[in-house]
Amino acid sequence: MLMVVVAAMAMALVGATSAMAETTQEKAQWQAFANCPFHEFGGQEGHEITICPWAQSSYKERWSSKKEREAYESAHGTPAGLLSHFSAGNISVALKLPITLKGGAAEKEVEGQVFEWVGAKGSPTIQPVAQAGPSLAREVNKADLSAAELARYTYYRNIARETRTTATVELAGPATNIKLDLAALLEGVGTAFSFPVKVKLGNKFFGDNCYVGSDEHPIVVNFTTGTAGELQGKLGNLSFNPEGTILTVWGDTLVASGFASPGVENCGVEGGADAAMDAAIGLPSASNTSVLNGVLKQTGSEEAIEHLGI
User: Fold this and answer.
1) C or N terminus of the chain, fewer CB within 10 Å?
2) β-bridge partners, 207
3) For residue 188, what are the CA distances in angstroms to 86, 228, 231, 294?
C-alpha cells in the first residue's frame, strides 16, 4: 500500500500535467498554495522548492464513517476522541481554533522522504491564532511577586477584572527548522512533523512580550501518526483530486509526548512576573504533550504555478 501511495504521489507531484482548472470550485482548491515560496531554494544542497504543502488543524478527530471509528478502536484497544491541545507544565490549552501551516518544501540529501520547510510568502508560516487560556488567577503565584508586581496583579484581577488570558502558538526561529518526513507520516513510525514553537501568553498584566519558549530556546514538538507515550495517533484517509495533482490526507491525528518546555520569559514589567508564573504553571517542564487533528494537502510547485497563473 505504501509503495502504491508513494508512486502515485511521485507522479502527481513531480511529473503530472493536467488541464487548467476552469470552474470556480476547481480554481478555489489551488488557493491554499498561493503562499508557497515558488522559485526559491531550500534543503541542505540548496534544492529548488518542489512541493507546496498546506495543513490546518481541527479540534476534534474526524472520521469518514462510524464503521471506520469502531474498527480503529477495536484495533488499538482504546477509545477514539483525542482533542487538539498543547500542554506544558500543569496547563493545557485546547486548540479549538484552527491553526494553518503554509510554505514550501525542498528535498534533503538523507535517506527516506525527508523534506525541509521554506517559509510562506506573503503570509505567516504558522498562522498565529489566540486560543483561550486559563484564568489569570491560575497562572500566577502571588507569593513570588514583588510589591510593585503584586499591586499590578491585584489591579488587573480584582479591579479591572482583566482575568481572561490567551495562548498563541508561533513559529520559533526560521521555517527551515520545520521538518516533514512523508514516509514516517504514512507508516506511523518515527517523527512525521517536527515543529519548533513558542507560545505567546496574552493578558494586560503579562505585557506585550510574554512567552513560553523563544527563538533561542524553542519548544521542539515531534509529532507522529503512530504512538507517543500513552497517545495513539492515526493516518487519515488519502485521496487525490481528479487530475491527480493534489494529495489530501484528511482526518489524521498527530501526537507528541515527552518534549521539554522552558519557563516563561519577559512576563510582567521587565520579567517581574516570570518566577510567579513559572511556579503556578509548573515550568520548566521536562515532559509535555500535544495533539493535532487536521488535514494536510500538498501539490507540486509547477502544478500550483500553472493553476494559480503565477
Assistant:
1) N
2) 203
3) 21, 10, 13, 16
CA 29 to mean position of chain CA atoms: 21
Give the whole-angstrom CA distance, residue 69 versus residue 71.
Answer: 5
Q: What is this structure's pTM? A: 0.85
pLDDT at position 42 is 52
pLDDT at 108: 63
Residues 229, 290: contact at Cβ < 8 Å?
no
Residue 109: inside a domain:
no
Q: What pLDDT score was predicted for residue 73? A: 82
Query: Consecutive sets of 10 residues in the chain, 310 residues long: mean pLDDT of each?
Result: 39 41 67 89 61 94 86 80 93 96 77 74 94 94 96 96 96 90 88 94 97 95 95 92 90 96 97 97 96 94 88
Q: Quick one: cell of 277?
A: 508564573
Q: Give the chain's domain count.
A: 1
Q: By C-alpha distance, which of 208, 187, 228 is closest to 87?
A: 228
In a domain? residue 4: no
13 within domain boundaries: no
Domain that includes residue 133, residue range? 57-104+123-296
| Contact criterion met (CB below 8 Å) for 305 and 56 | no
Output the CA angle 235-199-162, nearest 5 degrees: 125
Is residue 12 a part of any domain in this protein? no
User: C-alpha angle 84/217/150, rounded to 5°?
Assistant: 80
Question: What pLDDT score does 281 carry?
Answer: 95
pLDDT of residue 48: 73
Residue 262 preceded by cis peptide, ω within 30: no
